[in-house]
UniProtKB/TrEMBL annotation:
Family matches, as Pfam families: DUF179
Entry-linked NCBIfam families: PRK00228.1-1, PRK00228.1-4
TM helices/strands, residue ranges: none
Stated family: Belongs to the UPF0301 (AlgH) family.
Protein name: UPF0301 protein SAMN04488056_103269
Lineage, top ranks: Bacteria, Pseudomonadati, Pseudomonadota, Alphaproteobacteria, Hyphomicrobiales
Length: 214
């Protein structure tokens, strides 16, 4: 009997996806294929915040920045000023990761969060459950315990010009699947790639064993 390899599974999934690919992938995950290399996108999971004929924009949600912590960022924007402020910071935020969201505009913060918090004219509702806000106000709200119940923060984003993402999809650089809220807000960043593959029925252990094989 022919053993099902990781490559077999990938080919099966990509054939399925090519026949049902929607016109817009807004609100979905892009999951990097093994052939996609580079510091920003290798083994990445991207949440697509917008996708149209004008291009696409998304956030890499599983690469932790080694350059800055969340409290450091709050100090840079003058939300935290001393040790007392740090002590008063909600406990989950004291160890909250800052993610490397992509190669574009890396000096700017983007907060992907639950829909129970929205700022008029500043929040993009990507779906009924997930929103995007990129203002200092949401950072202040988080620090004061008045922000969304679930959130992740990236510096920078991933952007595609018109037709660029479609070309990458045609070249099998990405797998796609419906976004999963628990993956974003309950799963540790270093586990999100494996969890994303599992949403498609793909086992990461097979990715490792098949790497480098034709």
């Amino acid at each position: 009997m022919h053993a099902v390899t990781f490559i077999d599974m990938i080919e099966h999934v990509t054939k399925q996806q090519s026949s049902i690919m929607p016109s817009s992938l807004e609100g979905q995950f892009l999951i990097a294929m093994p052939n996609l290399k580079g510091p920003h996108f290798e083994r990445s999971v991207v949440y697509l915040c917008s996708h149209s004929e004008d291009g696409a924009m998304g956030l890499v949600v599983n690469h932790v920045s080694s350059q800055i912590t969340f409290p450091d960022l709050l100090r840079q924007v003058d939300i935290l000023s001393d040790e007392e402020d740090m002590i008063n910071l909600p406990q989950p935020l004291q160890s909250m990761d800052v993610l490397d969201g992509g190669p574009v505009d890396q000096g700017r913060g983007f907060v992907l969060h639950s829909a129970d918090y929205q700022l008029e004219a500043s929040t993009l509702a990507v779906s009924s459950e997930i929103c995007l806000t990129a203002t200092v106000e949401i950072l202040k709200a988080l620090a004061e315990g008045k922000g969304p119940s679930s959130a992740l923060l990236t510096l920078g984003y991933a952007g595609w010009s018109p037709g660029q993402l479609e070309d990458e999809l045609q070249n099998n650089s990405w797998l796609t699947c419906n976004a999963d809220r628990s993956l974003l807000f309950e799963c540790a960043p270093d586990q999100r790639y494996e969890a994303g593959l599992k949403l498609l029925g793909i086992d990461l252990s097979m990715l490792s064993s098949e790497a480098g094989h034709a």
